[in-house]
Design brief:
Layout (H helix, E strand, L loop, with lengths): L1 E6 L2 E3 L5 E9 L6 E7 L6 E7 L4 E3 L7 E6 L4 E6 L8 E7 L3 E2 L3 E5 L2
Parallel strand pairs: 2-11
Antiparallel strand pairs: 1-3, 3-8, 4-5, 4-9, 5-6, 7-8, 9-10, 9-11
């Protein structure tokens, strides 16, 4: 089993930046795909960025060019650097790994 713990959420003004971190523990060898999802109020959860164990990345169109996912294999940690944040990015952000593993979530609020 894999346990995922997020950190780094908070309140930021439009145009600002935040970096989220996800620390993984447990059966690390099972992790092939790492990612970040988010769920805004009244909307379904969506996976916004993924990175494979080989380093290939993928993003949904709404965050392309603004968000960057990266990983530090030695620390069993991956990150989501979020730049040029918009109010519509406000959501609970969840760490994700394959086999439908999700963290507890961290709130990101973009507001002036």
């Amino acid at each position: 089993q894999v346990q995922l713990v997020e950190s780094g959420g908070g309140l930021v003004q439009p145009g600002g930046s935040l970096r989220l971190s996800c620390a993984a523990s447990g059966s690390i060898f099972r992790i092939l795909i790492m990612g970040w999802g988010r769920q805004a109020p009244g909307k379904p959860r969506e996976l916004v960025a993924t990175i494979t164990s080989g380093g290939n990345t993928n993003y949904v169109d709404s965050v392309k060019g603004r968000f960057t996912i990266s990983r530090d294999s030695a620390k069993n940690t991956w990150y989501l650097q979020m730049n040029s944040l918009k109010p519509e990015d406000t959501a609970i952000y969840y760490c994700y790994s394959n086999n439908d593993n999700w963290g507890q979530g961290t709130q990101v609020t973009v507001s002036s």
